[in-house]
Request: fold
Amino acid sequence: MDKADKIFNFKNIILILMVVALAIVPLIMVKDAEFEGADAIAEEAIGEINADYEPWFSPIFEPPSGEVESLLFVLQAVIGAGIIGFGFGYMKAKGEGSKESHAGLR
Amino acid sequence: MDRKNRVLLFFSIAGMLLMPQWVQGMHIMEGFLSPAWCLFWGALSLPFVVMGYRSIQRIIKEHPRAKLLLAMAGAFVFVLSALKLPSITGSSSHPTGVGLGAIIFGPLPMSVLGLIVLLFQALLMAHGGLTTLGANTFSMAIVGPFVAYGSYRLVKRLQGPQWLAVFTAAFLGNLLTYVVTSIQLAVAFPSEVGGVMASLTRFMGIFAVTQVPLAISEGILTVLIFNAIAVYREKELTDLNVLAKEAM
Reply:
């Protein structure tokens, strides 16, 4: 079996679709939800448990807007995905895996 | 658990079901742990980070070729912890991605890789924080990887299939990270009624429940990338696995 077939095969496509479904199902199932990713609710809970608590330190830099914040998150994902893509490209171009034993890891 | 706590537990579960707009927190926010707790978690994390740094040096020395996989394991943490996914509780959170590296290299190197990602997010995105860095490192970069590695070894020992071992490791590593976050907040903010347990129930509702579907996603994604790496570097994965076992 070709190595690419071991990665881009039916089983893996199903697995990827499962991850996509796990992200989409809540969007359909839970109506009227805001899907906020903020840490605000924990802050709120802390406020209720201990009303006197004041954060004693503020972030030294805060993204000026939600757009800038999402830009930075995308940047983070892009850096990661880029390195992973480079890694697989490197291993494939070097023809790795062809001579190695496939007996291990059992 | 006494009766009061049971009642609280019931109400927080009912609350979770009735109030899907509950927002999901991720790492502990800047300034939200008292200096004493910041120092405590920082001091607890530091030795792991030092050991992690040494173990990375050792891996690179004994397996120079593994540098690529190390970079990829770190990159996987970068990608997954940037993915804020919606969850069944009506709020969003993100996976951690530390399971993959813990499976390949053992838990120690992940303390350093996780710390790098946490630092990146604390400095640039005001996500997590510098004062809470120790606590967040402890949950995501130490407990998560140790749980992942331990459950991986356990499933392997029980002769479970490779995919199941990888899935379980990533799933539990993710979930336990947020259980620890809940515990950290609960001990720092015990409720006036019900104490630490009541707070724990509350924070678990916020942090851990949302995480369950995301932990499943992380498990699947980790299986996918692990299998893809194994296509090219199966032998190296075996060698590194032996090295990780020796280091423990």
Observations:
- The radius of gyration of chain A is 22 Å.
